[in-house]
Each structure stands twice: as structure tokens, then as C-alpha cells.
Amino acid sequence: MGINFHITSVREGTIFNVMQFLSLEKVTGTLHVSFGRNIPEVSIYFVTGNITTAEFGAVVGDAVLDVMLCQEFAIKEVSFAPGRINQLNEQANIFRASSLSGVMLNVSKDVDMCESRPLIYGLLPMQAKEGKRTDSLLHLLHNFEEWDDLLTAAPTSDKDKPAPLPQCALLHRAISGGVIAYQTPLISLRSLKPLLDIVQPLTEKETNNLRGYMRSLLPNPKATHMSIDRFYAFASAIESIAQRRSSEVGDKARRAIHQLIQTTTKLNETVNA
Questions:
Q1: pLDDT value at position 270?
Q2: H or E segment to which residue 30 belongs
Q3: 88-101: burial string, b at 16+ Cβ within 10 Å, e else
Q4: In whole angstroms, what is the distance from residue 47 CA to residue 51 CA?
Q5: Higher pLDDT, 11 or 244
Q6: The whole model's pTM is what?
Q7: How far lies 249's CA from each of 8, 203, 214, 232, 243, in Å?
Q8: What is the pLDDT confidence band of residue 136, given thresholds at 50, 70 and 90?
Q9: What's the rounded Cα separation, in Å, for the pair 33 and 19?
Q10: Does 11 have pLDDT greater than 60?
Q11: Regarding beta strands 50-56 and 5-7, do their DSSP bridges make them parallel or antiparallel, or are they unpaired?
Q12: DSSP letter, residue 40
């Protein structure tokens, strides 16, 4: 009987470990990677332990691995089903390297060097200026042919950033130029400085705890913004620290948080109007 498993607790590095295991076991079958119940799955096909093809809708081949590693934080479930695939999509072939370690090393370099990544938040819903909507950025990538004309028409800018995937470079340009925007309000990390200043100086323990908590709330390590729902959680931690200083400092922190939320919400309403 072939290997068959289902993982519902996905942490950083899980995908590489799973793929390495499948490679070592020389399996033949399909690795399914899920970003959530309503988001299409990634399918990666193995033949005797070798990755042959990968598909995520309009994104195929090596590019799928870039998307998967870049958005690893968003992965919810991983499962493997043994069995041969009768017909493979030749356009989805993996070309980069003959070994899994070589493939993943190249992908890791791509993700690390991607300059568009700070604005690529896979799970957030998006809306075009013309009113067109999608349930998430990952949906947009999966169904990219439906958005290609709109994003390609976005004017070039000195804010343009390169990316391993041309789709992501176009997305960055369109988001920066206001052609498309996230429907969820985003808080700029730069705007958090005045709030953090209220509770300075922080103890070493408070600093380490906040850094760790911040990292857990961000959609990727290079993120420049945080969704407002996650900001509420971070603001609660700041407010707790401020309250321990004094009731006066706590009140000051609450006012700053309220002002930041108001400003962000109004800005988002303007962008999505």
C-alpha cells in the first residue's frame, strides 16, 4: 500500500520537509496543498520520488513552487494521495533542477530576492477600481487570465518592483498605482512608531515578546502592512503594556489606537470608493 497522509497543522518549513520525505520514499502520486476551504488547491505530482509537474490554475511549473513558498504562512492543509496520473500537463513541467534540494534552493533564492513581496498578501480579498472583485489574491493568481488585461494596462511607474513571477510584478504595479486594492483596511507598520513610543522604554522581555507576536501576525517577513483585524490583536498587547505603566499612559495608548484605526478606515474607504 502506498503512502497516504493528511496534515492540518502546517508550520514554517513543513512543505519542504514533506516534499523531502516524499522524495526519499520514492513515491508516485499527488501532493495537495490547501490555502483554505474556498481557495483552489496546489497540485504537485511525484513520480518515483521526483517532482514532475506543479499546477495552481493559471500558474504552472516552477512558478507554483515560488507561490507556495512565498505564501507558506497561508497554507492550511497538506495531503498526499498515491497513484499514477494518466495524463500530465506538459506546460506544468518542473525544469529547474534534477534534485529536490536544488529545486527548493532556487525557489528560496527567488522568494528572498523578490522586491514585490511586501505587497503580496495572498489571503486578502481584492477589488479593482472599476469594481471587479476577487475573494483573495490567491484566487486572482489562480484565475489570472481573467485579470491579465486589467493589470497589464496599469501604467509603468518608478515604484515598479521586479518579481520572479511576472504576475506578481504586475500586481505590485497595479496596487501601487491604485488600479486594484485590498478590500481589507491595512495598517502601515511605519504608522505604529508613535504608538510604540508611548510605551517606551520597553524591557528586554517586552521587546522580545512584541517582536515575536508581530512576526506571527504578519503575512510574510517582508510585509510593510498589517491587516486591521490583526492590528487589533497587536494593539491589545500594546494597550496592556501601557496600562501597566499607568492609567494615564493606558488612556494615551487607547486614543492613539482609536485615531490610527479611524485614519486607516477612512483611507481604505477612499481607495475602494
A1: 62
A2: strand 29-34
A3: eeeebebebeeebe
A4: 7
A5: 244
A6: 0.89
A7: 42, 16, 21, 18, 6
A8: very high
A9: 11
A10: yes
A11: unpaired
A12: P
